[in-house]
Amino acid sequence: MTADEGPRVPAPASAGAETRRRVSAGRWKMLAILLVCAAPVIASYYTYYVVRPEGRTNYGTLITPLRDVGTLGTPVTQAADASGHAAAAAGQPAAPARSGGVASLHGRWVMLVVAPGACDAGCRQRLYEIRQVRLTTGKDRDRVERAWIVSDDAAPDPALLAQHEGLVLMRSDAATLARLLPTDPGTAVTDHIYIVDPLGNLMMRFPKDADPNRMKKDLAKLLRASRVG
């Protein structure tokens, strides 16, 4: 380079290369956001599945591999449920129910009960237990939802529903329930209480006639291990 020549300026990157760089950077940012959102739930699973101090056990049965049950159930409000059955009795088409299923509760831990609309003594006991267990979580209760999936076309008793304010009511057919919800040998889906994580994955099943105090301890561990919800 002669004394009269100035410093050479590098040629600018092509428009195509710049576009690819921006797309790549955007993808990495999106991945980082997803990891941040999922990290608390991943941490809770790590605590349960990997970090298991000697002498520490969980009461509920962990579901492996995880099952995505976000599409399970069709949510209905109590009013919609009652009007729908009244319309059917009158020979008129019922209004369509809201869509969403368990996925509509995304971001919350869900205690799930399955039972026919008639809801026998065992069903009523399980509804009572999930209500009480949720109350024991204290300041964390807003992170926990309760859901009842009605396994037939019967309308639940309005008086019963009035006892369980905040209970999310859904419907599903028996075949779908049997496919997505595993059971203990010799039991049915209606015998269990299930836990669904904030990402819509079925992660735990409690045994038939479960001990509410031990359920409470398992749920408390999950809430401590995860800050999602």
Task: Report on this structure.
The chain has 229 residues and is α/β, with parallel strands linked by helices. It has one domain: Glutaredoxin, CATH 3.40.30. Helix content is 38%, strand content 17%. It has a 7-stranded mixed β-sheet with strand order 1-7-6-3-4-5-2, covered by helices on one side. Helix 1 (15-49) runs antiparallel to helix 6 and helix 3 packs across helix 6 (212-225). The protein is elongated, with a radius of gyration of 25 Å. Residues 82-99 have low confidence and may be disordered.
CATH homologous superfamily annotation = Glutaredoxin
Percent range for β-strand residues: 15-25%
What is the helical fraction, as a range of percent?
A: 25-40%
Order of helices and strands: HEEHEHEHEHEEH
Give the low-pLDDT segments: 82-99
CATH top level assignment: Alpha Beta
Overall number of strands: 7
Q: Which structural class matches the secondary elements?
A: alpha/beta
Mean pLDDT: 80
Distance between the termini: 65 Å
Number of domains: 1
Query: Largest beta sheet: what is the strand line-up?
Result: 1-7-6-3-4-5-2
Q: For the report, how would you describe the main beta sheet? A: 7 strands, mixed
